[in-house]
Design a protein that fits this description.
Length: 396
């Protein structure tokens, strides 16, 4: 129970510190922040809790074997030295993914194939049978990371990516990743003492993630399965303890409001709210951003406007200018946060950002910006607050 292991929690660019804060909140202090990842030491219970509670983790990996290889045949030979029966048995379907940063190994798929062959051949040599490989729905998911000639094999404790919460029944065009949505809310510092509005809500991801945060509901509660449930050493009783611990949950009177011009988007949002059991706590309206009425004199807007894939530049510039005017006219006293993937269109927005954070939405470099709708000294205060905020360039 108290034995500690090394783990690596993967996340999206720009959310590393947010994830580190989440890990600390569940009692994990021995951690190091990396690019798109946080490594930490913890117990098996810590691993279960991290998967169940962390909103900004994509997957959590356990390094199980490290070796050096100078070519593919040496990689195969070194891989066969590990006792894979300690990780899986012949009934387990498995899969291997590879990531390489090496002049020696240049093809990640071939590296993954060599590891798969080594595992299957070891089982055949020892039992006369080979386990099945199933890249789509494996019981055991392995990853091999190679840097130069240094090879590390990691066991995936999450299985399906953790952004797939399990509540989304339907989705609109280009839905926002749930991990990114939660990250935006946590980066903004919003809490349920202020109203939350997404006036261009799409399929409702930001609304649902906000409600989960406000009510302290773990994102893992909707999941059907985690990868670690297929491990040979899975502790069902311990996981049930983690699953049934409702100490983070709380009542909330947060006002959460969403709107969208698309009737279909609103229908999708309502279906997803029902799936998450949150329909009583979130109001959605079939309304354009220009007609939606703010529910209070102060609050927080977080939204992800169109980037322009289906709009001409002139149309997008006009739209952004009109949105900027709408915020100025109707949201005095509010903090407006926008995730913008079109920096040219932002020039038409007509507002000065009081904070800018660089993120990635898929492969699109985005700016997550705060626009504080305050007059006079309060506006100047916010403008000065984050003048030197992080403006990193997001590179793959």
């Amino acid at each position: 129970m108290t034995q500690k292991f090394d783990f690596v929690a993967k996340t999206l660019f720009g959310l590393e510190e947010v994830l580190a804060k989440e890990l600390r909140a569940i009692g994990i202090d021995d951690l190091t922040v990396h690019r798109r990842a946080v490594s930490f030491r913890g117990t098996t219970e810590d691993l279960y809790r991290a998967n169940f509670h962390c909103r900004t983790a994509i997957r959590i990996l356990k390094p199980i074997y490290h070796f050096t290889a100078r070519n593919e045949e040496e990689l195969y030979g070194q891989a066969k030295k590990f006792d894979w029966s300690t990780i899986m048995d012949i009934s387990h379907k498995f899969a291997v993914d590879g990531v390489v940063n090496s002049e020696t190994f240049t093809h990640s798929r071939y590296v993954a194939l060599k590891l798969k062959d080594a595992i299957a051949d070891q089982f055949r040599d020892n039992t006369g049978r080979r386990p099945f490989v199933d890249p789509k729905n494996p019981h055991i998911q392995l990853h091999i990371h190679i840097s130069g000639q240094e090879c590390t094999v990691l066991l995936d404790s999450s299985g399906d990516s953790l952004h797939r919460r399990g509540y989304r029944q339907l989705q609109d065009v280009a839905p926002l990743n749930e991990v990114l949505a939660a990250g935006l809310i946590l980066l903004s510092g919003w809490d349920d003492s202020k109203p939350f509005v997404d006036p261009m809500c799409g399929s409702g991801t930001l609304l649902i993630e906000a409600a989960l945060i406000a009510r302290g509901i773990p994102p893992g509660v909707f999941r059907k399965e985690f990868g670690f449930e297929n491990w040979l050493n899975f502790d069902k009783e311990l996981f049930e303890k983690v699953y049934n611990d409702d100490s983070t949950e709380r009542e909330s009177s947060a006002i959460i409001l969403g709107g969208d011009l698309s009737k279909r988007a609103i229908e999708i949002t309502r279906e997803n709210l029902k799936s998450a059991g949150l329909q009583r706590f979130i109001e959605v309206q079939h309304s354009s951003i220009f007609d939606l009425v703010p529910p209070a004199t102060t609050g927080v807007v977080i939204t992800n406007p169109p980037y322009g894939e289906r709009l001409k530049k002139e149309q997008l510039d006009i739209f952004y200018r009109q949105v900027g005017d709408c915020f100025k006219q109707k949201y005095d006293g509010w903090d407006i946060w926008m995730l913008a993937g079109n920096t040219e269109a932002l020039k038409s927005f007509g507002l000065h950002a009081s904070r800018t954070i660089s993120l990635l939405n898929g492969t699109i470099e985005c700016k997550f910006q705060r626009f504080s709708m305050y007059k006079g000294s309060m506006k100047a205060k916010y403008r000065e607050e984050d003048t030197n905020s992080d403006k990193k360039v997001a590179n793959e």
